[in-house]
Give the backbone structure.
Amino acid sequence: MAGTENGGDDEVSDPNRGAYRAQEKNHRPVYARLGDRVARIRVRTLGLIGVIAVLAIGLVTALAILRPDARDDAEPAPAAAPSAPPVANANGQPVPGPTPASAPVEQAQESSRFGLNAQKLLDEVRSHGITFSDDDAAKLVQIGDANVARNQPDLTADDPQIRRQLTQMFPSMTDDQAKIETSCLAEYVEREVARQHNTVPPDERDDHGG
């Protein structure tokens, strides 16, 4: 009977107790519920990213603490290589001046009969803005030796023999280039002849500071 006492004076039985209750319907629009779900997923994703970032920072910090100082691991800078001794000429005598910077120049210098410094000669002819390769050093030394052998202490700036040798060795050279390099080689030969005889070159206005 309704209202029957069951466990105390104030307890009243509920006729609907134990009855099936239908699930309460959510009357919110579908897009609103979808938005809530996306928001929850986004929050979880951001939380996961935050955890990963914290772990990564912790790992990097731990490695930085445990790893020895990178500066201690660096290889010491190699000591500067000592200057190479002068290369000897064909007579076995050391040649003063700059050391050849490559094998072709060194070979050209070794072949010189009069101890011409092939690197210095190559640098001088290049100083006029005309391109010469290291392989050209052998030709230049050959021209230099041939004219030092003439043993003429004073040559003209347009020495015909030097000019002819230049145009034969370097057929692509223009007339202007041949004129410039003839003068350069004539001055170089004068200085080498003077060096052979321990005298002063006749042209004191030499542009190359011989």
Q: What stands out?
A: The two ends are 135 Å apart (CA to CA).
